Amino acid sequence: MTDDTTRGDVRLTGIGKTYGSFTAVHPLDLTIPEGSFFALLGASGCGKTTTLRMIAGLEEPTSGTVHLGAQDVTALPPYKRPVNTVFQSYALFPHLDIHENVAFGLRRRGIKSVKKQVGEMLDLVQLGDKAKHKPHQLSGGQQQRVAVARALINHPRVLLLDEPLGALDLKLRRQMQLELKRIQTEVGITFVHVTHDQEEAMTMADQVAVMNAGRVEQLGAPADLYENPGTTFVANFLGTSNLIEAEIAGQDGDTLTLKAGDGKLVLPAARCSAPTSTGGKVLVGIRPEKISLAHADDAGEIPTGRNRLTGRVTATSFIGVSTQYVIDSPVCAGLEVYVQNVERDGRLAPGAEVVLHWNPEHTFGLDAAQAIDAGVETVETDAKEEATS
Amino acid sequence: MTTLTEAPPAAPAPQTPAKAPRRRGRLTPYWLLLPGILWLLVFFALPMLYQASTSVQTGSLEAGYKVTWHFATYWDALAEYWPQFLTSILYAGLATLFCLLLGYPLAYLIAFRAGRWRNLVLILVIAPFFTSFLIRTLAWKTILADGGPVVGVLNSLHVLDVTSWLGMTEGDRILATPLAVVCGLTYNFLPFMILPLYTSLERIDPRLHEAAGDLYARPATTFRRITFPLSMPGVVSGTLLTFIPASGDYVNAQLLGSTSEKMVGNVIQSQFLTVLDYPTAAALSFILMAAILLMVTFYIRKSGTEDLV
Amino acid sequence: MPVLLWIRRHLVVLAGLLTLGFLILPNLVVLVFSFNKPKGRFNYAWQEFDTHAWQDPCGVADLCGSLSLSLQLALWATLGATALGTMIAFALVRYRFRARGAINSLIFLPMAMPEVVMAASLLTLFLNMGAQLGFWTILIAHIMFCLSFVVTAVKARVMSMDPRLEEAARDLYAGPVQTFVRVTLPIAAPGIAAGALLAFALSFDDFIITNFNAGSTVTFPMFVWGSAQRGTPVQINVIGSAMFAVAVICVLAGMLLGNRRKKQSV
């Protein structure tokens, strides 16, 4: 890392926030590389918005410092920070028209001729013809774009987005995700995006920090987080995971052999975030779409070297591109399996005896000391299913 | 049970209930409006007409009055009492200004800074109403009394020198001077300024303040560009609610002023209740009403908040 | 320096508290001077502590008579104005009809008119009709000027009401009367109560309009007005302070009750 590449990084060092006896954010360290699209992901109340507001200067940290590159901005009020925010539900000034809303920051910094810049910025967000409208005359998606334009026109070092798409309906949200991503690529400014929508975070961000109860659970690229979650919270919050309690039976080179009930499972040692001593407990994780299903009669056709479990189908639901099965196995009840509807096996109806099998490479191991259902979402399940379909 | 007992009567009569409520519905609003509107017509609008007619009558209390279209009453009234009109507008204007200056910080405090004390402070703003305003106005006689602590402090700070240079006080007393009357008016109508201000401030999304700060506006700029413009509806209705009653008030001038602080309300009152010169009193009251309606209309147009009314 | 900085940060709060003090100060003076033993007829200068006025609040001729008259007037004016005003408010929000604009103006104007103008014109009417000035003319006047305020208060509440609630009630087998009594009225009740309270306060404390239309009848504000000329008995302060205390206690009790109800419903 040279000085050049770190110049625009956002560095949070030991930053924490407490309200009375309640700790909103435990002291955390985080570096957000310049030019990246960074997402803070978590359920409501996990501290992600507080973290964002501390970067913006809207919240005073109880401990720690905020650096923009080499500059310590911890003590600067928001109006002196080269950082701009797209607020949740936008906070557009209702008495000013779109042009004046977008020009607001420029005028405050004493720039007189703003017309050209504002025009260009409105064109960037495709609202060039709406300059004379008042905010309430625009649709939610348009207001959202004005909020982005109003922040971006100041060429901030970092753009902070606080649940910017939360108020939009699902379809518009998908559209705006692509739009925001396009804008970010175009202007190259660091975006820090706060969201509770794991889909959104994964689609848009280069880097995701998953937050839970005021701490960062795991940090990484979306695919890494998904494929190799480090905690049960991440495993359950990002998509769906089947977690099976197992005991380490032994290690053979790079692979661990596990005992789950009567069954035997194999797990690459590198994909296990728990201690790997023999006899130790682990949670074996496998994503539902990685599992293949075979009817018990066809069990002999399953290639060797794959992890296997037996079970009985208790429920199926047809989603269109896929079918979701709920399967009770002797080692774990309620396993979920998503199967693409390429060749549907009519025998896999509720009550059918089946064998689940998957490539051991897709297995991950988690510390069994954690709550197995941490981060399980109950409300957002619909959106998730829609996304996987 | 219910479906069994209620279904048969409903079946044969699908047409009558469909029509009857609609016919009744068409007249319902008029029945609801009738008594109240009649009351206002008879005891508010009609008296205005009577007063208009009285103002162009001539005659005497003994011989009775007749409508003679004697418009000269208006000129005579204006010619004689224009100083009181001016005094009224000046005092009411000053009181409105002071109410705005005093009331805004308190309204702001309640809306944004009071936190869990908000309800308590609101109650304290309204609480004075619970004591008769005349009693409270009389209390100002004590507070502003000659040689009292308020006069003493203001005197030693040379504030009274300034106010007496401005013609608001005389020597080292406040009572029986214009300042006392303006102070009384300010005090009496302050809650009418604070409450609408608070209502419109409270509606402002605090995130707008954060957004302005985020966009490089200092707190003072945020106030000037965001908070104050957004509170304009409150400012307009607050100033109206203060100015209108203050301009017609005669209680404060009577209790806290001397004869030289008479406002037009005092004149109307004495013409009506003491001198018994009804045409002049009616003309004066009409002029006051017209002046206020004119000013209010102009003001509302100017401040661009017509949707208030 | 930190002191200056602190003052700058909390300037609004300090200014607001000063204003609050300005608002409350006269009430404190009234309370303190209810324990005064004035020399002479006027109770403006502090002499010595004395509780005689509290022991005998009705000890001044006509004082308690005027108080009870004012209470009666306020009660009837509240009833009248609330009934008429609520009806108007419902008509304005729930129905479409002709002359809506004119009616809105007729309701707005009394609030935008200096009291002295209304007072004088009403007196002209009564004089022309040869009406006997007294209780009834005062009551008529009070209902008149309270009406607009009740309409405004109730209208605000009814407007924020979801009309679908009434549709839901009708869908669930409630007739028009039942819908009104079981659904509409309970939901509009806070607005009606606010309007009624406002009417009571306005009527009880009204001086200017009453002064014009009372003839020789003396209400409590008129008694105070008269005493400002003739001499102010300490009992005025006693009654003012007692009213203040009663009202504050009522408001606090109402708030506590409301809070508890809110907690229960949650």
TrEMBL record, chain A:
<keyword id="KW-0813">Transport</keyword>
<comment type="subunit">
    <text>The complex is composed of two ATP-binding proteins (PotA), two transmembrane proteins (PotB and PotC) and a solute-binding protein (PotD).</text>
</comment>
<dbReference type="InterPro" id="IPR003439">
    <property type="entry name" value="ABC_transporter-like_ATP-bd"/>
</dbReference>
<keyword id="KW-1003">Cell membrane</keyword>
<dbReference type="Pfam" id="PF00005">
    <property type="entry name" value="ABC_tran"/>
</dbReference>
<dbReference type="GO" id="GO:0015594">
    <property type="term" value="F:ABC-type putrescine transporter activity"/>
</dbReference>
<dbReference type="GO" id="GO:0016887">
    <property type="term" value="F:ATP hydrolysis activity"/>
</dbReference>
<feature type="domain" description="ABC transporter">
    <location>
        <begin position="10"/>
        <end position="238"/>
    </location>
</feature>
<dbReference type="InterPro" id="IPR008995">
    <property type="entry name" value="Mo/tungstate-bd_C_term_dom"/>
</dbReference>
<dbReference type="GO" id="GO:0005524">
    <property type="term" value="F:ATP binding"/>
</dbReference>
<keyword id="KW-0472">Membrane</keyword>
<dbReference type="InterPro" id="IPR003593">
    <property type="entry name" value="AAA+_ATPase"/>
</dbReference>
<dbReference type="InterPro" id="IPR013611">
    <property type="entry name" value="Transp-assoc_OB_typ2"/>
</dbReference>
<keyword id="KW-1278">Translocase</keyword>
<comment type="function">
    <text>Part of the ABC transporter complex PotABCD involved in spermidine/putrescine import. Responsible for energy coupling to the transport system.</text>
</comment>
TrEMBL record, chain B:
<comment type="similarity">
    <text>Belongs to the binding-protein-dependent transport system permease family. CysTW subfamily.</text>
</comment>
<keyword id="KW-1133">Transmembrane helix</keyword>
<feature type="transmembrane region" description="Helical">
    <location>
        <begin position="281"/>
        <end position="300"/>
    </location>
</feature>
<dbReference type="GO" id="GO:0005886">
    <property type="term" value="C:plasma membrane"/>
</dbReference>
<dbReference type="Pfam" id="PF00528">
    <property type="entry name" value="BPD_transp_1"/>
</dbReference>
<protein>
    <submittedName>
        <fullName>ABC transporter permease subunit</fullName>
    </submittedName>
</protein>
<keyword id="KW-0813">Transport</keyword>
<feature type="transmembrane region" description="Helical">
    <location>
        <begin position="30"/>
        <end position="50"/>
    </location>
</feature>
<feature type="domain" description="ABC transmembrane type-1">
    <location>
        <begin position="85"/>
        <end position="299"/>
    </location>
</feature>
<feature type="transmembrane region" description="Helical">
    <location>
        <begin position="119"/>
        <end position="139"/>
    </location>
</feature>
<keyword id="KW-0472">Membrane</keyword>
<keyword id="KW-0812">Transmembrane</keyword>
<feature type="transmembrane region" description="Helical">
    <location>
        <begin position="89"/>
        <end position="112"/>
    </location>
</feature>
<dbReference type="InterPro" id="IPR035906">
    <property type="entry name" value="MetI-like_sf"/>
</dbReference>
<dbReference type="GO" id="GO:0055085">
    <property type="term" value="P:transmembrane transport"/>
</dbReference>
TrEMBL record, chain C:
<keyword id="KW-0812">Transmembrane</keyword>
<feature type="domain" description="ABC transmembrane type-1">
    <location>
        <begin position="67"/>
        <end position="257"/>
    </location>
</feature>
<feature type="transmembrane region" description="Helical">
    <location>
        <begin position="73"/>
        <end position="93"/>
    </location>
</feature>
<dbReference type="InterPro" id="IPR000515">
    <property type="entry name" value="MetI-like"/>
</dbReference>
<dbReference type="Pfam" id="PF00528">
    <property type="entry name" value="BPD_transp_1"/>
</dbReference>
<comment type="similarity">
    <text>Belongs to the binding-protein-dependent transport system permease family. CysTW subfamily.</text>
</comment>
<dbReference type="GO" id="GO:0055085">
    <property type="term" value="P:transmembrane transport"/>
</dbReference>
<keyword id="KW-0813">Transport</keyword>
<dbReference type="GO" id="GO:0005886">
    <property type="term" value="C:plasma membrane"/>
</dbReference>
<feature type="transmembrane region" description="Helical">
    <location>
        <begin position="105"/>
        <end position="127"/>
    </location>
</feature>
<keyword id="KW-0472">Membrane</keyword>
<dbReference type="InterPro" id="IPR051789">
    <property type="entry name" value="Bact_Polyamine_Transport"/>
</dbReference>
<keyword id="KW-1133">Transmembrane helix</keyword>
<feature type="transmembrane region" description="Helical">
    <location>
        <begin position="133"/>
        <end position="154"/>
    </location>
</feature>
<feature type="transmembrane region" description="Helical">
    <location>
        <begin position="180"/>
        <end position="202"/>
    </location>
</feature>
